[in-house]
């Protein structure tokens, strides 16, 4: 069994904490945990906007705190994001996420990320060996 404490990670396991200018993410589970998915708690700053396109991964995201919206860039459709709402990028959907208030999201990736990825210019993460 794997048991990890978010607060302990923040204090003692900084390798699991990744930050960009306007988001940060705590990787609770990564590929080497062998679960077949990774699990992240992600914070998106109030007022920020992000375009991501996870071409190589499926992702589901559950909003725990905050307020914002997500636009599916293929259809132009925009959905409200608030606590209790989940979105799943089941078609590797390119999307823009906006945080009106800081968003706190619980995210799962399949395949799991390794922790070494950086966002490429097209908004995707590479697979480990691509
Ligand atoms: C909200 C969202 O797409 N989170 C993705 C996870 C985060 N970018 C990370 O941990 O890499």
UniProtKB/TrEMBL annotation:
It catalyses: (2S)-4-acetamido-2-aminobutanoate = L-ectoine + H2O. InterPro entries: Ectoine_synth, RmlC-like_jellyroll, RmlC_Cupin_sf. One of its GO terms (molecular function) is ectoine synthase activity. Keywords: Lyase. Pfam families: Ectoine_synth. The keyword Lyase applies. Its EC number is 4.2.1.108. It is an enzyme of class 4 (lyase). Pathway: Amine and polyamine biosynthesis; ectoine biosynthesis; L-ectoine from L-aspartate 4-semialdehyde: step 3/3. GO terms for biological process: ectoine biosynthetic process. The keyword Protein biosynthesis does not apply. Belongs to the ectoine synthase family. Catalyzes the circularization of gamma-N-acetyl-alpha,gamma-diaminobutyric acid (ADABA) to ectoine (1,4,5,6-tetrahydro-2-methyl-4-pyrimidine carboxylic acid), which is an excellent osmoprotectant. This is L-ectoine synthase. It comes from Histidinibacterium aquaticum.
């Amino acid at each position: 069994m794997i048991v990890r404490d978010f607060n302990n990670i923040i204090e003692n396991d900084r390798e699991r904490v990744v930050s960009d200018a306007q988001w940060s993410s705590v990787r609770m589970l990564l590929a080497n945990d062998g679960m077949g998915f990774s699990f992240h708690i992600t914070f998106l700053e109030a007022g920020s906007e992000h375009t991501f396109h996870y071409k190589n991964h499926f992702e589901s995201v559950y909003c725990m705190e905050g307020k914002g919206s997500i636009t599916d860039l293929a259809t132009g459709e925009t959905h409200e994001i608030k606590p209790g709402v989940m979105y799943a990028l089941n078609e590797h959907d390119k999307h823009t996420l906006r945080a009106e208030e800081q968003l706190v999201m619980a995210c799962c990736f399949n395949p799991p990320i390794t922790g070494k990825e950086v966002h490429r210019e097209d908004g995707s993460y590479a697979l480990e060996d691509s």
